[in-house]
Design goal:
Blueprint (H helix, E strand, L loop, with lengths): L2 H20 L9 E8 L6 E2 L1 H15 L1 E14 L2 E12 L6 E12 L2 E11 L2
Parallel strand pairs: 1-6
Antiparallel strand pairs: 1-2, 3-4, 4-5, 5-6
Length: 125
């Protein structure tokens, strides 16, 4: 991956990490495309940025999620799209044990910015 693309990918991932920590869900517009989809484990698919915003607000608050750390394992560019395979560590409030997850994100350029278009993850057992 070229350095410019790597910086763009890391910038978007960092925005997601920060919005979870700060509970600034308005920043999801900088992470997800307008017609994005998330596919959480054991749940129905959620489509559209506003629905995704509601999902993350509920999930973060219900689970007591306090921090997320994303780590790109591989990124492959496919024209104006690409996919990322990665690992994440989820940390929770009140000393609950952290959780490791694996994820797959389909990236897409929207208005010149690289954003998450399809986001899917599952816990590592």
């Amino acid at each position: 991956m070229n350095p410019s693309l790597a910086a763009d990918i890391q910038k978007t991932n960092k925005i997601f990490e920060q919005l979870v920590a700060k509970r600034d869900f308005e920043a999801l517009g900088q992470v997800y495309t307008q017609h994005a989809r998330v596919m959480p484990p054991g749940a129905e698919m959620i489509s559209g940025r506003e629905n995704i915003k509601s999902f993350w607000q509920t999930a973060v608050n219900t689970m007591g999620l306090s921090a997320v750390k994303l780590q790109t394992v591989e990124f492959e560019l496919l024209g104006d799209a690409g996919f990322e395979i990665g690992r994440a560590k989820l940390e929770f409030a009140a000393g609950a044990p952290s959780m490791d997850v694996k994820y797959l994100v389909l990236w897409k350029r929207e208005n010149g910015d690289w954003k998450w278009h399809v986001d899917m993850w599952s816990p590592v057992s």
